[in-house]
Amino acid sequence: MTAEQASPSLSVVIPTHNRRELLHRVLDALAHQTADPATFEVIVVPDGCADGTEGMLGAQNYPFALKIVEQSDSGGPAAARNAGSKAAVGRILLFLDDDVEPSPGWLEAHRRSHELQVGPVVVLGPYPPVPHASPELFRAIARNWWTKHFDELKDPGHRFSFRDLLTGNLSLPAEVWEQVSGLDPSFRAHEDYELGVRLMLRGIPFRFASDALAYHHEYETTTLAGAFRRAREEGRSDVLLSKKHPHVQTGLRVTTLFPRSCGIRGVLHHLLFVFGEWIDPLAQGVAAMLPIIARRRLRGLYFALYHELNEYWYLRGVAETLKTRLAWKRFANGAPPPHPAKKLSVDLRAGIRAAEVAMDRARPDEVVLRYDGKEFGVLPCEVGVEPWKGSHLKPALCGRLAQDYLERLLEAGDMEGVPPICRDAVQRGITKARLAMKVPREQMWWEQDGQWRVFISGAGD
Amino acid sequence: MGATHSEAERDWPPVPMAVLDLEMTDLPDQLQISEKCRAGLALLRVRGRPCGQAVVRLDQPDNPLLPTILAGADSAFWEAWLRCRLGLDASYADRPSTMSVSVAVCTRDRPEDLKRCIDALLRMPDDGQEILVIDNAPSSDATAMMIQQMSRIRYVREDRPGLNVARNRALEEARGELVLFTDDDAAPDPLWLRRLARNFDDPLVLASTGLTMALELSSAAQIDFQRYGGFVRGFKRVVYDAAEHDPLLAWHAGAGVNMAIRRSAVQLVGSFDEAFDAGTPTHAGGDSEMFRRILSAGYRIVYDPEALNWHRHRKSADELRRQLFGYEVAGASLLTKAFFVDGDIGALREAVRWLKREIRFLFRAVLGRPNVPSFSVSFARFSGGLVGPFLYLRSRRQVR
User: Fold this and answer.
1) Mean pLDDT for chain A?
2) From CA B121, how far away is CA B351, in angstroms rounded?
3) A451 and chain B: CB distance < 8 Å anywhere?
4) Which residue from B74, B203, B242 is facing A451, i.e. has the nearest CB?
5) Does A397 sit within 8 Å of B82, measured CB to CB?
6) Do B88 and A394 touch (CB under 8 A)?
């Protein structure tokens, strides 16, 4: 046996809490990877398990090296991941959740992503919901959130944000992990976001590896009650996150929710902050009615109550640190506005390629776009998001800036086949499509209906 | 101008209108259209992909064509045009499906229409699909005789009348994992099959639907059907999922003239409800009712506007009125079934919403407001909705 084989180069870390059967399935999938099992080790961190997980682990025989790192006093998943990675020997750390089942090429794909990159990189793998149909409305909501999330990451024009860092299917060099000293165990939720902020600050690039696919058995592990519990943890964590990294506060829900807190809602929030403990049973009662409402297919009511309850528990979490609504107000209003440290101005008349190169070179926080000297749009500065790069340009021009770009092209006489005399009519046509382009609208025929109306009313032209 | 006297009763929109199919990256200098057409409905393609439409005047020959169309194009077209200009990839490939596919045409006593439909189907690339013609309770053997002369077409005779009965027979007879349905009065685009069949990679997708445009706009009734909704569902791909779409409104996804069903849907959500659609008192709605069950059970439907089909709309005002009456009967039947059979209280709310909308339409028709269907059409819709629940109950009794 060579020295290289003796010490695996990849370490898979899986924290687990009372999910023996699911964990068994995940380990089984790891035993059937296309990668040579001698090249990786698996570290399972049972976090206060009371369901015989350790016994199950002892009874199995896996082709890879399996380490078990006990964590007796349920310290939470952040502490468990930290403990697991301390025991790891690989150069690359891979994190999996105990309900995330990797596809056979998963490990290989992560490894390849690191090899392809010069310098350290954070590799995000997709873990969409495992296909499972359920008539329950909550299942549809949960499934939809995950599906949408990974669809966004897949989009070639996507700009990575600290929010994209989730620890369910993630890999990064052990060296980077040590430099940032892992996750912050004082967080009980959003510990992944917090790590994302620090990695972003260090300028470590994120990369999405669509082939590092794993399936999330979320329908077996997430529940309605769990979602509300989590909302509360998130409220608490977001205050903590804002205090630790004030520059991302404007983007967090703890800040964006506040402007809605006025009028009657504001009064209710006062009550929530002061008498929350007495209101909790009422909120629990309403939550208990949700499944009945869903069964009767009262969708509107269900969604309204679900979102209100979610907000309620989130703010209950916020209230644990910020004791009054007044304190919340000061906190939310004190969020520092986004500040673009590096700005760039590009003129697209010189060609898209040249603009892309300039963006790649400068990696600016904000880009002013001109065409033939005249400004027509801005790629804005957003907090906790990677700087703009060349590959973001075209999708932005086809998306949020499509309207302004088209109008500018027309104005500058750079729309082939449109003689100057027809410009006004085309301009009006583009303007008519305006709203449709800015708002992602997907429903049916209202736009086509509008075309007919314009046509009919234009009879007198 | 060229319109006949009876059609000239109303002057605008002009009758007839031209139907245009235009490749915008390679626009002709001159359109080959009849002189009679003072306006047209143009399907806009970019690199062969349908991506938008424009309603254009053609009675001002001095105006160059391109700007005329651009001035009336919709947002989906502009987005596709920009993507093309910037060299971004087109949405999806047009490769043959990895799944086995059957195409089913349910027909009844319309051999001429059927001939056009089959000719269009035979223009599709041969990816090994089978083509089934389900002859539903025919009054003569004209269809059978015609099919006998054609190769590659499998003829199945279903004597129990009803479109949903015929569809269920197609699902039983088909050998493919996917069954694509179209009607005998439609003529699919050559890439229809591939583009409809490509949406099934996700195992949760049980149905997929496409864009259906007017084959001709030669009468006022055809133009009205097109402009007041028709089969238009927009030009953007949509994944329908119960998280974002009410199953009661699943008809938004499309219609039976242009749909594919995964055959395993029969085991997962049940077959087509034979109390619905043509040949029963409910008149229509067999497709929407299936779509509703698909979404309610947690599965998905994909609307893919690149899967293009052309449909010959009803020509006479009478036929149109009857058709729209039938649609509202079907809509009300669907709500009735949801409410009484599945205990769906949301259906009640939807019924109230329907009532408000239709009353508003009726009033505006009475007042002669523009851009509202005529009073007779609005009244046909309204009465269809009112008698719908009773017709559904009758239909149910008949099926049992």
Assistant:
1) 92
2) 39
3) yes
4) B74
5) yes
6) yes
Which of A426-435, B213-222, B308-317 shows the lowest per-residue confidence on average (mean pLDDT)? Answer: A426-435
Tokens of A397: 């021009």
- Return the SS3 of A388: coil
CB atoms within 10 A of CB A1: 6
In this structure, the strands spanning B130-136 and A92-96 are unpaired
- How many angstroms separate the CA atoms of A307 and A325, rounded? 20
Domain A3-222 class in CATH: alpha beta
Identify the DSSP state of A117: S
Distance, CA of B170 to CA of B105 (rounded, Å): 9
Calculate the CA B118 to chain-centre distance. 17
Element (H, E) at B326: helix B317-340
Which pLDDT belongs to residue B2? 36
Q: How far apart are CA A87 and CA B195, in angstroms?
A: 51
Q: How many residues does chain A have?
A: 461
Residue A385 pLDDT > 80: yes
d(CA B163, CA B181): 11
Residue B28: DSSP 8-state: -
Question: Is A296 touching B (CB cutoff 8 A)?
Answer: yes
Q: Find, among B204, B206, B355, the residue nearest to B287 by Cα.
A: B206
The string of pLDDT tens digits covering residues B140-198 is 999 999 999 998 999 999 999 999 999 999 999 999 999 999 999 999 999 999 999 99
DSSP A339-387: --SSEEEEEGGG-HHHHHHHHHHH--SEEEEEETTEEEEEE---TTBPP
Give the model's pLDDT for residue A391: 95
Reply yes or no on whether the pLDDT at B1 is more than 50.
Answer: no
Q: Determine the straight-line distance between the first and last CA of chain A, rounded to whole angstroms.
A: 86
Tell me the average pLDDT across A406-433: 88
**pLDDT tens track for B65-98:** 888 899 889 888 998 999 999 988 766 778 999 9
Predicted ipTM > 0.85: yes
Question: Closest approach of chain B CAs to the CA of A386, in angstroms?
Answer: 22
Share of chain B above pLDDT 70, in %: 97
Per-residue tokens: B126: 């041969």
Domain ranges, ordered by start, for chain A: 3-222, 226-333, 343-460
What are the backbone angles phi and psi of residue A45, rounded to the nearest 5°? -115, 90
Q: Which of B348, B327, B314, B320 is nearest to B391 (CA)?
A: B327
- Chain B residue numbers with beta carbons less than 8 Å from the beta carbon of A406 are 78, 82
Residues 6+ apart with CB under 8 A from B307: B189, B191, B192, B195, B196, B208, B209, B210, B211, B258
What residues contact residue A45 under an 8 Å CB cut-off, 6+ apart? A13, A14, A15, A16, A68, A69, A70, A71, A80, A81, A83, A84
Interchain CB distance below 8 Å, B298 and A300 = no
Interface of A with B in 130-169 (CB under 8 A): 131-137, 139-141, 143-144, 147
Q: Is the pLDDT assigned to residue A305 strictly greater than 50? A: yes
In this structure, which amino acid lies at residue A232? Answer: R
- Is residue A136's pLDDT more than 80? yes
**CA-to-CA separations, A274 to A315, A325, A458, in angstroms, rounded:** 12, 8, 60
Of A137, A300, A456, Cβ closest to residue B370: A456
Beta strands per DSSP E along B116-257: 130-136, 153-158, 178-183, 186-188, 205-214, 238-240
- The verdict on a CB contact (< 8 Å) between A417 and B66 is yes
pLDDT value at residue A60: 84
> Residue B298 is nearest to which of A133, A397, A461, comparing CB atoms?
A133
pLDDT tens readout for residues B37-59? 999 999 999 999 999 999 999 88
pLDDT tens column, A388-400: 999 999 999 988 8
